[in-house]
């Protein structure tokens, strides 16, 4: 019996995560070299599996050469074999594997594996959101928190929580470890498609920072910004971003 799209996404994300842990555990390399080997190995697995299981669908991966062929497809798989290569190479847990299916540009199906935590979060098995913290927590980059995020956090009285990959940050909101993930430093479609799909399925808000919907499978895969947060905080965060001085919102 063939897998549903959601089952396939979750299965592939989990398998790629196990492969990555095996590569890291082999001791063959470390640091940046480990990140490169992990990316290539997981990508080969994901690309082969998707082309075998869904040969009619389009495909976009961070680690494969992009072509215009996908633009004519209504259904396009968007994957990031290792989201957070640096964290993976440093043997941290805040990295992820993203497998998503965008349908007519909408992040519809997705799974985000957090292999270091032995978790896979998926669109077809949403968990109810727990209570929010009294003081909002905002996940930000470990090394370079965006000026906009810092300004919004100050206005909200939010606590900054440094964390690694985009997927790990988004899933921290899904898992109730944070309330807000605001990113304005630029990403690509593979960085956010699976996390956005999972977040939306769990009842969270996910949009661009001007409030417009996230749209995928475009010819230009660059995505300037992203907001994933608890729905009750969305309007306030969007308003704060709009009122930032030009130097901070550029």
TrEMBL record:
An example Gene Ontology biological process: sulfate assimilation
Residues reported in the UniProt entry to bind Mg(2+): 62, 80, 83, 191
InterPro entries, alphabetized: CysQ/Inositol_MonoPase, Inositol_monophosphatase-like
Top-rank taxon: Bacteria
Required cofactor(s): Mg(2+)
Main EC class the enzyme belongs to: hydrolase
Coiled-coil residue spans: none
GO MF, one example: 3'(2'),5'-bisphosphate nucleotidase activity
Keyword GTP-binding in record: no
Keywords noted in UniProt: Hydrolase, Magnesium, Metal-binding
Gene3D superfamilies: 3.40.190.80, Fructose-1,6-Bisphosphatase, subunit A, domain 1
E.C. designation(s): 3.1.3.7
Protein name: 3'(2'), 5'-bisphosphate nucleotidase
Organism of provenance: Stakelama sediminis
């Amino acid at each position: 019996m063939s897998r549903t799209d959601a089952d396939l996404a979750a299965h592939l994300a989990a398998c790629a995560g196990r492969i990555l842990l095996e590569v890291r555990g082999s001791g063959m390399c470390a640091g940046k070299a480990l990140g490169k080997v992990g990316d290539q190995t997981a990508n080969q697995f994901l690309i082969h599996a998707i082309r075998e299981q869904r040969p009619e669908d389009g495909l976009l991966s961070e680690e494969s050469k992009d072509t215009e062929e996908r633009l004519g497809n209504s259904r396009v798989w968007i994957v990031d074999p290792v989201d957070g290569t640096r964290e993976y190479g440093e043997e941290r847990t805040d990295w992820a594997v993203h497998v998503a299916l965008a349908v007519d540009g909408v992040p519809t199906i997705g799974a985000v594996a957090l292999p270091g935590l032995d978790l896979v979060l998926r669109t077809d098995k949403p968990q109810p959101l727990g209570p929010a913290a009294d003081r909002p927590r905002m996940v930000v980059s470990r090394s370079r928190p965006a000026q906009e995020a810092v300004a919004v956090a100050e206005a909200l009285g939010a606590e900054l929580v440094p964390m690694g990959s985009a997927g790990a940050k988004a899933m921290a909101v899904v898992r109730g470890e944070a309330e807000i993930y605001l990113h304005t430093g630029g990403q690509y479609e593979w960085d956010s498609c699976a996390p956005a799909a999972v977040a939306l399925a769990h009842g969270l808000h996910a949009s661009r920072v001007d409030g417009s919907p996230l749209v995928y499978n475009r010819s230009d895969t660059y995505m300037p910004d992203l907001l994933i947060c608890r729905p009750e905080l969305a309007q306030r965060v969007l308003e704060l971003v709009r009122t930032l001085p030009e130097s901070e919102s550029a």
